[in-house]
Amino acid sequence: MGIPAYRPTTSHFWSVAQTFDWGDDLEDGDAADARWAGFFGGIFRREDAPMMAGIESNMDGADLWDLHPVVLPRGRGAVLVRRLLVQRMAADRGDVAQALAAE
Question: Among 24, 34, 35, 95, which residue's Cβ finds the most Cβ atoms within 10 Å?
Answer without folding.
Answer: 95
